[in-house]
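Dear support,

I submitted the protein below through the web form. The confirmation email said the job was done, but the results page showed an empty box. After a refresh the structure appeared. I'm attaching both so you can tell me whether what I see now is the final result or a partial one.
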Amino acid sequence: ATVPNYEIKRIIGSGSFGRKFFLKLGYVFEAYDHSKKRKVALKRIQKVGNKLSREYEILLDIKESDYVVKILVLSSISTLGLYYSKTEQGKLIQNIVFEYMEDNLESLIG
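What the results page shows now:
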């Protein structure tokens, strides 16, 4: 499959899994989708094993909820909002593409 063309702008968050274990395995980036001409949130997580991540499975189950940030449909690949890429070191990265939100839950309730 073709990897979508995203321009990463800045880090906007890091995954709780990474903080919990003091490893930087997951980050969320503000990115620009050149093919659809829109801002997106791109969550990049180092892939471990050969199964879909539990997070992605749960997000698919609740994708119709009005209270969940939406996973975006990627026209260049068949899987909803998910593609894989490799780092320069050859590590497999799972990428989930979300709608971009200016605020996050932590800032709204904090």
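Response: this is the final, complete result; the empty box was a page-load delay. Residues 42 and 75 are 16 Å apart (CA to CA).
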